[in-house]
Amino acid sequence: MPTRVRSRSRSRDNYGREDAKWRLEADAAAARWRQAHPNQRSQVKLRIKGVEHEMSSAKVQDLCRLLEDGSHLTTRHLPRVEVDGCKIGKKGAEHFARVLGRDRSNRPNNQTLVELKLPNNSLGNPGTSTIFATLNFNRSLRTLGLYGNGIGAKGALAIAEVLKARQTRLETLHLGNNNIGPKGAEHLAGALGQCQLLKVTLDFCQIGDHGAAEFAAALRSDPVLAELDLRQNSIADVGALSRALLVCPDRDGKNSNTHLTTLDLRSNSLGGRAKDMMTSCLHRGSAQVLS
Asked: CA Rg, the chain, in Å?
């Protein structure tokens, strides 16, 4: 009996059945959602979990090529993608950067992707910088999640520089469980007030009191940020006392963040004095402080 040879072709229109498992799942997800919600397509989502899918560099490239193909069902009706724990690294980041960027004719490669989450993928500072460099040219992405990717102060600086350029339309940024540290927090805080972020999560990022104080100073003049998550960041009284002022108007009733609705400080080393001061401020402010 002749040996069966499996095709190794990776052209855009010729995928092997195993390599296209995520593609079939994407089509099925889109079809189910369109059937159940014929007038609502913004919530369709493809989620690829590392435990279930081992994504080689070639598979990541295939997925990204598909996302660049505007004629395909997946691209037109799948605006939310999450690739979790697949260790795509810097090379994978380069593939996703092309999805978010523009072609040689300066046309966007993908105009429908509004949410991209790449948690636990070993992107590091280089991969993070690569992805953010394309956001100056992207007009569709609203949510970016880079949880648990080994991002340090250098990566935070790259993020801050893009945010300061005021070209990205990001509204939600998830950076939890990274090595941002006090210096990285300083970079990110300096970018607030110069971008349109509505929600930032920085839980488990080791920013400490110094980082918290930097955010406190920046947020007092930030006109739009509504939610800030700083859980588990070793913030003690000094940081908490500075940040508590964010929910209080100043003596002239000016220079205060009037849009902040939620400040999450749970699992920090807050002392009684800090909590008492926050309670007092809450009677005069509008934000909810979780501690």
From this structure: 21
